[in-house]
């Protein structure tokens, strides 16, 4: 999937960071209304299927999302 540079919307740089984030969230909300239209590379589907299969085979080895977020929060950057 080739990425094409997207021009910055007029006035975007003048917005506060909070307003820039709000703008991006609103844009994502528009995109996500039709998730079936978002291209997903076959490699991503394969990886998701593999991880789901592994989770079903060994549920005791899986970590909750909260545990993963806690782990990521303690890493040094």
**Poorly predicted spans:** none
Net shape: extended
Task: Provide the helix percentage.
Answer: 40-55%
By DSSP (H or I, 4+ residues per run), the number of helices equals: 3
Termini separation (Å)? 29 Å
Major sheet summary line: none
Q: Estimate what percentage of residues fall within beta strands.
A: under 5%
Secondary structure class reads mainly alpha
**Mean residue pLDDT:** 90
Secondary-structure element order, N to C: HHH
Number of strands: 0
Radius of gyration over alpha carbons? 18 Å
Key terms:
77 residues, single chain, extended, 3 helices, mainly alpha
Please outline what is shown here.
The protein is an all-alpha fold. It contains 3 helices and no strands. The protein has a domain at 41-77.
Explain what the structure shows.
The protein has about 80 residues and is mostly helical. The protein has a domain at about 40-75. It is about 55% helix and about 0% strand. The chain has helices at about 15-30, 40-55, 65-75. It is extended, with a radius of gyration of 18 Å. The mean pLDDT is about 90.
């Amino acid at each position: 999937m080739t990425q094409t540079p997207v021009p910055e919307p007029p006035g975007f740089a003048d917005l506060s960071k909070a307003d820039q984030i709000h703008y991006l969230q609103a844009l994502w909300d528009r995109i996500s209304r039709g998730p079936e239209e978002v291209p997903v590379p076959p490699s991503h589907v394969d990886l998701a299927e593999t991880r789901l299969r592994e989770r079903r085979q060994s549920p005791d080895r899986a970590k909750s999302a909260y545990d993963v977020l806690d782990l990521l929060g303690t890493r040094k950057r």
